[in-house]
Amino acid sequence: MTNIITTPLTSSPAAPLHRRCAPLAWLVLAASLAACGGGGGDTTPAPGPGPTPTERFIIGGTVTGLAPASGTSGSSRLVLQNNEGDDLLPTANGRFVFATPLAAGSAYAVRVKSQPNGQTCTVAQGSGAMPGAAVDSVQVSCAAAVWGLPEGTWVREACNSPSPGQGTRNMFRLTRQDETRVTVNQATMAYANAQCSGAGTVQSEKEYARFEVDRKETRGGITAFWGNWTYSVDPTRPTRAVLARSGPYLCWAADHFWAQFSTMDDVERLVGNTTQQGLCYVLPE
After folding, report:
1. What confidence tens digit (pLDDT) does each residue in 15-47 have?
2. Three-class SS string for 137-176?
3. Which domains does the chain possess?
4. How far apart are CA 224 and CA 263, in angstroms?
5. Tens digits of per-residue pLDDT, 63-99?
6. d(CA 277, CA 1)
7. Separation of alpha carbons 216 and 63, rounded Å
8. pLDDT digits 0-9 by tens, 226-268
9. CA spacing 20 to 30 A to 31: which of 47, 121, 123, 226?
10. What are phi and psi of 205, to 5 degrees?
11. Cα-flanking dihedrals φ and ψ of residue 31, to 5°?
């Protein structure tokens, strides 16, 4: 009988050492590949300098030439606006800043939403893109308004309520013939509410007078026009008259047209008094 000698299957002493060293070898290989630029994925570079996407910056500038507010009831004030919103009301010359900051790269557009009483303000360097820093270079310059001979449809600021739910305003339509002559029609503007708000309807319009200007004077925000006023119903009896334009207002008294007010001191005083009482005329919205 042939004897078969069997040897137990045992691991070579080197095998455990090989298994222990294999992870170390792979780490060395991976490090070598990374050093040579192979075997690795794309890496994200560190962010460079500059504003973060959420960082926001203020926008502002300087107002010059703004006259002190008169305090007259209903007088217009300077209102600035950025991007059709974010209203700002500067009350004096100097620096201004809008309340809402803007992100880097976003657009800004500063405009005058409302002119101050008796002045015209303009904006320079008022639009662009935010540069990733605060903008303080917007320039708003104001100066006294010099009005031309008035024209257009003017309604008295004061509202009458002849019956419940209805309102009326006196109306004058001025049509400029040239730089010294204007024709005047008279009518009533009727409204479907007692507050005279919204669009009105012109009623009973008729030819009223002719006005020929022979003198003009501007002081501050008021421009006065003196001349001969001739009523259409009695053209043989012209009278002296003066109209005064102050900001949004056109002022005169309906009966005597201020014919006795020959100086700018008189006109200034009466413009102040009459606007407070709502007796001057404005262009309807």
Report:
1. 444 444 444 444 444 444 444 444 444 555 555
2. EEEEEEEECCCCCCCEEEEECCCECCCCCCEEEEEEEEEE
3. 56-144 (2.60.40), 152-282 (no CATH)
4. 9
5. 999 988 754 444 578 999 999 899 999 999 999 999 9
6. 140
7. 29
8. 888 999 988 888 888 889 998 889 998 645 556 677 888 888 8
9. 47
10. -75, 140
11. -65, -35
| Helices and strands, counts by H and E, the chain | 2, 18
E strands present in 20-151: 56-57, 59-64, 79-82, 85-88, 94-97, 102-103, 107-114, 119-124, 127-129, 135-144
Facing residues of 167 across strands?
A: 191
**3-state class (DSSP) for residue 270:** helix
Grouping H, G, I as helix, E, B as strand and the rest as coil, residue 205 is strand
Of 196, 58, 192, which Cα lies nearest the Cα of 130? 58
Whole-prediction pTM value?
Answer: 0.55
Report the DSSP beta bridge partners of residue 206: 186
d(CA 206, CA 204): 6
Query: Encoding tokens for residue 190?
Result: 């009727």
Q: How many CB atoms lie within 10 A of CB 174?
A: 20
Percentages helix, strand, coil for the chain (3-state, rounded to 5) are 15, 40, 45
Read off the tokens for 136: 């303080």
